[in-house]
Amino acid sequence: MDIEVIQGGHVTSPQGFSAGAVAASIKKREGALDLGLLVSDRPAAASGVFTQNLVRSAPVQVSEKRAQTGKLQGVVVNSGNANAPFDQKGIDDAEVMAALAAKHAGFDAQLMAVASTGVTGVYLPLDKVEAGIPRITLSPDGGPDFAVSIMTTDTKPKSYAVALKNDGETVFTVGGCAKGSGMIHPNMATMLSYITTDANVEPGFLKDLTKQVADATYNMMTVDGDTSCSDTLLVFANGAAGGPLITSGSPLGYKLREALMAVGTELSRMLARDGEGATHLITVDVVNGPTLADTRNVARTVALSSLVKTAVTGNDPNWGRILVAAGRSGSPVEVAKTSVRLQDVLIFDHGKVIEFDDAGVSKLMEADEVRIQIDLGIGTHNATAWGCDLTTDYVHINADYRT
Amino acid sequence: MDIEVIQGGHVTSPQGFSAGAVAASIKKREGALDLGLLVSDRPAAASGVFTQNLVRSAPVQVSEKRAQTGKLQGVVVNSGNANAPFDQKGIDDAEVMAALAAKHAGFDAQLMAVASTGVTGVYLPLDKVEAGIPRITLSPDGGPDFAVSIMTTDTKPKSYAVALKNDGETVFTVGGCAKGSGMIHPNMATMLSYITTDANVEPGFLKDLTKQVADATYNMMTVDGDTSCSDTLLVFANGAAGGPLITSGSPLGYKLREALMAVGTELSRMLARDGEGATHLITVDVVNGPTLADTRNVARTVALSSLVKTAVTGNDPNWGRILVAAGRSGSPVEVAKTSVRLQDVLIFDHGKVIEFDDAGVSKLMEADEVRIQIDLGIGTHNATAWGCDLTTDYVHINADYRT
To answer: Which residues pair with B48 in a beta bridge?
Structure first.
């Protein structure tokens, strides 16, 4: 049994899921899709991971409570406004939005999650939501439109899907979509991602898998160090593919984990690559670290360093900045045991300055993806973090966001 | 007895200190001062605070050991090269540099601290240091030149001095200088600062004061979240003003603390204001926090937030970003008890969205200094952090640093 990428796959690729979106004028840009709905044709096992920020948007508070039941049937999302005035009216508005969407989809309001992304501190224009929802047409081909409708400063929609195949027959499918692209940082950011599968999954196992996937993928991606009040990952498993219930002991459990990791990894890479103003995807592989937590921490710290990011912007093979960023991570680093590679070229060897082809490595860094590999030499754990370079466009995007 | 600012004061304003600098061609720019020497006319009580980064430059390793004796007589500094190849040769070079400077100044090499700042990963051009040191002319008026010689990407030198006056008579003087301006972050950054005083101070008390000053000033300043391998604060007290030994119980102890805090605060503000590419100094006052550590942590987190920084760049009174940054600090924040002021205007009131003059506050934010005040409403502790906005020039400076 192999996991295969579905060309052009998206969040409604698994059976029993449909989606749709409309332009509801919540975003300033006329005609932009900004209100989307994703539903399953039956209640699904569901699990969520939400922002760690103590300041939480209204939809996060509503959706977290509903996801804790382990059962959801859909999610309604708007972009252009984060519904984050941080008071009771925000929560009331989120509940009304979910109820309207559930009524339109034809199921119980408690099974509808809700999300909003965009500017904070402004009340949701509920009249626009109310006018928009009935116009949404749900379809199994609606995944791409849904992925567009959740975008804010993203330059492109992010969708991905894989299928587990057995002798050419599909066992189950996993699809997903996500939006970034600033305020992205470990412990979730203004990041929304929805993963769907038609696999038949035991809710407790789905919850464990969701946490594992978030820790290894979404929480290893950083754009600017800011985490938002709105971050949400929801995973829906509706069982439409049939088959026996997959639990932690099932033979298919490993395959399901692998498929979810593949979708989470690729969506995370897409998010980092589309970081605000980014011109390079930065992949930081840290190997031979002392613990998994420390190894991940070093990877994330290097991926987040403004000085490493701007070195990548400038195609500068500056191992000093990489080493110094690792050194301030708070995790053990022994210079004499540390080696650094850039685009697979050794540029710092076990604590020693070495001769390398500076101009040649700089040339290699012109690639779309820049790989930094750090061998800590003090353990057996490996981790990967994804980030992006820091360009003048990041500043333009965020200095002029409201104007 | 009052503390008065000395107009045009600098690191050699206190009695018994002299300094000088030369252009030694360590920096690329021809004729730039890049090798400086600061000495006392007698051994001084001395104390240091050094980078918390586990990756430490050679001069930091040498100077920290010497400062631990509580006695130093001078420091030699070069800019343009950080002497950070992270191997034994780096340490040997730092010791040679200190020995050459001590010989030139006429005292024991063990009393000479050493610092280097600039590009990492390249061996120190020791021949240039050796040729330069004998050309340094030491003078009580050498403070300004010394302050220039330690600069890297700083746009201006940073010097400040105050005197404690009693009926018009000077009791003691405290002077200082510093350089930034990227890689600046709590726990010190590519930050070098030297504070001198002619007060007669007991070494143990000086050590306590140095830590207190660093915690309240240098460690509350952030430019880009990166800490360097080279950060150093050294405080010298040579007793040239005479008077009885100042200890923790002395009446003058409080005045000395106040004077050191004044110099540390003003130098920190100058460093933040001159952050790479900065157009605004950002001052974050957090009041009524639950503990001093938490209050400081919230202030620093907000000052470091890329989204807050870019909001300031764009003169955008975006309280949402301020609140969300506070919320991810890891310290307690209760939205319903939190208020936010920008340039003294209330823009978020105890968890409630309020009407305010958005355009008017935006206009006020055009000032050189933007003050963010956050009332946490859950305690009695106050703290201030200093940062700067994030502009496209930061990116240019750091993407093109080596080229």
So the answer is: B234
Question: What is the rounded CA–CA span in Å between residue B25 and residue A73?
Answer: 69
B120 contacts on A by Cβ (under 8 Å): 318, 320-321, 323-324
Positive or negative: CA dihedral B292, B293, B294, B295: positive
Q: Number of Cβ pairs closer than 8 Å across A and B? A: 197
Fold matches, B2-273 and B281-399: no
Question: Model's pTM, two decimal places?
Answer: 0.82
- CB spacing of A311 vs B86 below 8 angstroms: no
CA torsion through residues B349, B355, B358, B363, sign: negative
User: Does residue B12 contact residue B149 with C-beta atoms inside 8 Å?
Assistant: no
A183: left (phi over 0), alpha (psi -120 to 50) or beta: left
pLDDT in tens, B222-280: 766 566 788 899 999 999 999 999 999 899 999 999 999 999 999 999 998 887 778 89
Q: A400: nearest CA in chain B?
A: B314
Closest partner residue to A306 (CB to CB) among B52, B225, B348 is: B225
Query: What is the C-alpha to C-alpha distance for residues A387 and A224, in angstroms, rounded to an integer?
Result: 9
Among all residues of chain B, which has the CA nearest to that of A325?
A: B226
- Summarize pLDDT for B350-397 with one digit per residue, the tens: 998 899 999 999 999 999 999 999 999 999 999 999 998 887 776 776
Topology annotation, domain B281-399? Ubiquitin-like (UB roll) (3.10.20)
Residue B118: closest CA among chain A residues belongs to which residue? A320
Q: Which residues of B touch A227 (CB under 8 A)?
A: 324, 328
Domain coordinates of chain B in residue numbers?
A: 2-273, 281-399
Whole-angstrom Cα distance, residue A66 to residue A51? 15
SS3 of residue A164 by DSSP = strand
Tokens of A218: 């979404």
Query: Which residues, 6+ apart, have CB-to-CB distance to A201 below 8 Å?
Result: A45, A209, A237, A239, A245, A246, A256
Kind and range of the H or E element at B175? Answer: strand B169-179
Residues of A serving a catalytic function are 190
Angle at Cα B19 formed by Cα B188 and Cα B68, nearest 5°?
45
Q: Which residues of A touch B365 (CB under 8 A)?
A: none
How far, CA to CA in Å, does B150 sit from each of A248, B22, B39, B192, B239? Answer: 61, 11, 15, 8, 25
Smallest CA–CA separation between A16 and chain B, in Å?
A: 37
Structurally, at CATH architecture level, domain A2-273 sits in 4-Layer Sandwich (3.60)
Of A85, A226, A403, the CB nearest to B307: A226
Output the six-digit token pair for B231.
């950060």
Angstrom CA distances, B260 to A75, B6, B14, B158, B176, stand at: 57, 14, 13, 15, 9
**C-beta atoms of B327 and A54 within 8 A:** yes
Cβ B121–A391 below 8 Å, yes or no?
no
* Dihedral pair phi/psi, residue B22, rounded to 5°: -135, 165
